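Researcher: Go.
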Amino acid sequence: MRILIPALAALIAGPVAAQNIEYLVAPRGTAAYDTAKAREDGQAVFAERSLTAALRNAHETLSGCGACRVTIRIASGEYDGKAGTGQWALPEVIAPEASLHILGGYDETFDTRNPFLTPTLMVTPPERSGIVLSFEGKKHALAELVVSGLTFDVSPSNAYDAQTNTLMFSGSSTWGILRFGYLTTNHLVVADNVFLNAPNGVAAPAIRAMSDQALVEVTNNVFMNNVYTWQVTSGGGKFTPRYRLAGNSFVLNWPRNPDRTTSNPGTLEIGNKYSASQIDITRNLFAFNVGGAIFPQWDDVDGPNIAITENLFWDNGAMFDPEEPADGAVVGKFNGSATHAIFDPYDLEDDFAWDTYDNVDIDPELAVPVLEVGVLRDIGRGVAPTLPEEELTLDSIDFSLGDEDEGGDDLSLDLPSLDSGLSELTLDADFGMEALAGDEGVLNFAPLVPYDPRALPFPHNAEAAEYGASYTRIYQQGEG
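Model: Structure:
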């Protein structure tokens, strides 16, 4: 039994120790938990067997520690939430001087972190009844909040058609993945996470800016096979935050409804001019997003200031019959149009006042899973499309990251064999998009993509490797 609760222990230890409190989280009976227990000192470092307990104790610490930083470090492995519900929550906390960092993807020593290689998997059950990770309250405040290195595959709480593997809203969870509420903060960071198979959006953080320097950063995440993926918006108040979306991979995401008349077609949705003081969209990879990549609800006159620079756009907007791979970079109703249209990045430079330059259309050559029965089946004709001739086994793909760590060792992917339903990988240049979208609209809507860390959509084209998420750009505490 713990003698001192963390907040009290930190208070007794004095103001210096109170500045940095750490919770090391690992499943019971693992080498990582042994490491956590060995490092626990009862004052500044605490070992926890569940993220639920870490959040509860972090809340208590934050409530009374002033300008402290609380860090929750989570070892790789599977976590199933409070009572196995696949849900985690930080109770309302009003700590405007304090920072909370939630960092997943640590190895068993807690010295090395790479969440794409050693994932912290948030497991959701069937019939999920709430947000996966939520920050509760309407008046909560933190100087800084970082959520980094978590893997969310919410497919277990989704329903799919047995014959086509099409997502069915009826029977799927109606909840998103992240909820920040009306958090008042100066800095929100969402980095290095994997968001997969979300049926009703990932997040729309309606934060309130703590000052005119407030910044929301969404960086180095993988967004794949989600519906209604991410919304840029804010919670109002005296200040409007700046938004930076950099180095993310938005791959094979879906419109709100599988038809051209849907109200929300694009994967990255931008709200009105009060959503942000400035929105910088840079160095991202947008590929195979069926309803289009970026969806500004308002044009360059009535919407917020937007800079779209140095992004890679490839084969977006299949629902609107694109003619070239660069089409679908932006989708929207502009200049009084009654229907949505898609635009390439060169249209943006010529016809819109947004700050747009150095965007490219390069085939990223993504290694994608060849899915099981009927995933790419053409419902109308009942004919399965021909798969690409070049097919690769998991063992034959070179997963070398092309860099060396500080010790000179090759950073290569060394993971155990996973039974995830993936029979093989293929360098599928078009994701079977012709079969997914036809004259009657999308035929196979948001089919289940099994999670496998070996099959994340990192480019195999060296020229495209500088765009989107990367193994080598993991958020480092203190670097911002």
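Model: The longest strand covers residues 94-106.
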